Amino acid sequence: MDLQTLALHEGYEKGSQGTMAVPIYQTTAYEFRDVEHAANLFALKELGNIYTRLNNPTTDVFEKRFAALEGGEAALATSSGMSAIFFAFANAAQAGDNIVCAKQLYGGSLTQTAHTLKRFGIESRFFDVHNTQELENLIDEKTKVIFFESLTNPSIDVADIEAIVTIANKHNILTVVDNTVATPVICRPFEWGVDITVHSASKYTTGQGLAIGGILVERKGLNEKLKNNPRYEHFNTPDASYHGLVYTDVGLPAFTLRARLSLLRDLGAVVSPFNAWLFIQGMEHLSLRMREHSKNALALAEFLESHPKVKKVNYPGLQSNSNYAMAQKYFQDGMCSGLLSFEVEGLEEATKIVNATKLYSLVVNIGDSKSIITHPASTTHQQLSHEELLACGVPEGLIRISCGLESSYDLIEDIKQALEA
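The structure assignment produced for this chain is given below.
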C-alpha cells in the first residue's frame, strides 16, 4: 500500500465498538484472566498487555503504523527522541565499547554522544559525513554502532547512506540513522540497507509542537545480522534478567524486543498513551505536510540565495548546493523537508536578523506547522567550543529556519524586512 494509505489505516482494527478514531487507552495496568495467563505473558508464551511501561494498545498502533511507514519490521516508542537515540546505543554497546558518529549532528545528539555516553564507559568517535575514509579509519573490534543523520540539523547536509552502509556491513556493524528531519515520506533508509532508524516524534510526526516523544524502528531481517555476530554477544547468550531468554532465538524482532524488555522495562522512558495518540493524528497528514514544508523551504532558499547580505544558503533542493546530487539520489519526489539554514556576517548580524523577524517564532524546535527561527550557536549548540561549532557546520553567523505552512510570500517578506532592517 501507498504511504498515505498506511498512515491512515495500518495497525488498527476497529473491533466491536467500530470506532473510526484510535481510542486512547489511558491506563497503567491490565487485568489478567488468571495466574497462568499472567505467567504466560511474562514468559512470552503469549503476547499481550502487561503494564504500560512495556506496552499499551494506543502506543501499539503508533508503533505498528510508524514501522509500516518506515518500511521496517518493528518499532519501540519512547518518551523523547533523545531517549530513542540513547536506547539504540545502549542496546548495542556497553562499557569499553565505542560508537562512531557523524560530526554533523543535532546539538543534543552531540552532547549525548561526546559527554553523557562517556560516563557510561562508551567512547564516541567522530567522522565527517562526507568523508567515508575517515569513518573506516575509526572502526575497531569494539565498535558497535555507526550513527548519522539522513538530513543533518542544522548544517543541512545529506549523508551518502549507501557508502556508509557498505563500510558498516563490511565490518558487520549496526547502522543507526536519525531520520527525523527527512521523515519516512522523504527518505527511506531501510531501502539502502540501514539497520535502525530513530526519530523525534516531537517534530514533523506531530506537526504542531504538541507532544514530546520518540521512536526506534528496526529493519526487516535484522535478526540475521545479529544472529551469531560476535560484536553482539548479548543478543545470542541467555539474559539472566529475563529467564535466560536468548533474543535471537525467540522468532521476534530481536533489537526492539531487547530494547523493550530490558531498557524500557528498567529505565522507564515510556511515551504516554495520550502522546502516542497525538502522534497517530499527525501521521495521518504527514505526507501532505511534508510536500508543503518542502515547497515553502525551497521558495525561501531561492530568495535567500539572491540576497546580498546572505553569504551561504544550506538547502539541498537548490541546484547550486553541494548536497544536491545526494538529495536527488536519496530523497523522494524532489522534496527536501522544511529545514534550511543560512549564514550571514557574524554573531551580531545574525542576532539582529533573528530579533527583527515578526512572523517567525524564536523557538528551539522544528517541524511545526508554524515557522520557527533559531540561532543554533547561542541555543542548541551553545555547549560547543568555537572549533567544535565549525567542525559540525554551525558558524556563529548561522541562522536556522523551520519553514511552516504559512504562505511562502509572507515568509519571504518577513525575512526580507528583517535582513534590511
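Interim note for the steering committee: The chain has 16 helices and twelve strands. The mean pLDDT is 94.
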